[in-house]
Amino acid sequence: MAQLWGGRFTKETDQLVYNFNASISFDKKFYQQDIRGSIAHVTMLAKQGILTEEEMTQIIDGLNGILKDVEEGRLEISDNYEDIHSFVEANLIDRIGEPGKKLHTGRSRNDQVALDMKLYTRDEVLETDALLKSLLEELLKIMEENLDTFMPGFTHLQKAQPITLAHHMGAYFEMFKRDRSRMADIYKRMNTCPLGSGALAGTTYPLDREYTAQLLDFDSATLNSMDSVSDRDYLIEYLSALSTIMMHLSRFSEEVIIWNTNEYQFVEIDDSYSTGSSIMPQKKNPDIAELVRGKTGRVYGALMSLLTTMKGIPLAYNKDMQEDKELTFDAIDTVKGCLALFTGMISTMTFNKDRMESSAKNGFTNATDAADYLVNHGVAFRDAHGIVGRLVLYCIDKGISLDEMTLEEYQKISPAFQEDIYDAISMKTCVEKRTTIGAPGQEAMKQVIAANRKYLEEN
Ligand code: ARG
To answer: CA-CA distance, 329 to 127, in Å (whole number)?
Structure first.
């Protein structure tokens, strides 16, 4: 057990206590960030004359040596250290001796861990954003290719009105676009540097905190040292945004699962993204979509966990905060995995356009348009609604669709119907007449696609 704080103790730490307290098993994940932060710290210390140039160079060389050795497998980050900070410092002292003991001048593990976690999270926010962007690229491609692929739009999972596959995919495009804007917000708000806050009350050394912030690509230094060491808001915001991504992915997954059923057959998930059954030879299961849907709970769990951990913690740092890591790491890795797999799944999925179109035709998705036709022929909407309701009932009874009725049959129910009713309720007309921005009509969709193409080019 290598510890940084033996001085005031007369007894060894109990082994169980040591194990319970240690965080190295999970905080070793940010060894790079820890070293990067230390390099910035000593660079600043030398600039301020707190360390000599020579001491700085020796420390930085030592730190880079540790980094290289860990990276190339020569140095193992073992559980013999309490945390990643102890590991790096102890190894530095082993390597370079006396100057290594000056690394921690003007710093506490409280501001150090606050920095490491921020550096780590900041990179992950960017990676999440890049994965979201790949998904958006894929969605936009599907949209561009399916401007006239008709399908039923649903409410209550009942066929409602005809739309296109482009329009349906466009709904998810907007969701994931908002998710990206949340990443940008989080990045911007979290991008302040806590280093130099010390344990809680700053330090007595003449640190240049703005300089450290600049070295680490932060917009500025944080403005209150107590808040700096105990702020985990950015993690809560990130976990909340990750939860929203999972909520979106779970809705999309659910639709893919439904569309992939024998009953719907709107899509076929590629063999490479499906799994079989050990007993039923005919099965091809949408396990990936189900797992994505299922893992949503785990990400929500991480958010709830951290919110609960942070509740009621007095200022400033308290050890509870060490609990911010494991579930957050798990949530980040889970969401990144889900985004990558989901993008792969939809880019290899086949859309059964004929099935979609015939499903849109059967199910009276054009009933609203039939009513609108009557309104355009002088019938009040409420009366038109009643008339079309009777038409639907008649069709159900005869087992036909609205476009299969003869003109005589139409006119028996309302004389307002003319020959042009067939054109008015054709799938193409139903969709094409919806020309307001945001609607499925081709012209409107083309505008949206162009705007979103531009967005992807610029963001
Ligand atoms: N492992 C600790 C954490 O994750 C590092 C900070 C320790 N600070 C302390 N005063 N014990 O929060």
So the answer is: 13
Closest ligand 1 atom, residue 85 Cα? 5
Would you call 385 a catalytic residue per the annotation? no
pLDDT band of 9, cuts 50, 70, 90: confident
Residue 270 CA to residue 289 CA, distance in Å, equals: 12
Pick the atom of ligand 1 nearest to 23's CA: 1
Given the residues 156, 240, 248, 377, select the one marked as catalytic: 156
- Superfamily in which the 11-105 domain is placed by CATH: Fumarase/aspartase (N-terminal domain) (1.10.275.10)
Q: Give the CATH H-level superfamily of domain 359-458.
A: Fumarase/aspartase (C-terminal domain) (1.10.40.30)
Residue 2 is predicted with a pLDDT of 64
Under 8 Å between Cβ of 340 and 260: no
CA–centroid distance, residue 107 to ligand 1 (Å): 13
The reply to whether 85 belongs to the active site is no
**What's 218's DSSP letter?**
-
The fold of 110-149+163-357 is: Fumarase C; Chain A, domain 2 (1.20.200)
Spacing of C-alpha 215 from chain mean position: 28
Which of 13, 17, 20, 23 to probe ligand 1 with, by most ligand atoms within 8 A of CB? 23
Q: Quick check: pTM over 0.85?
A: yes
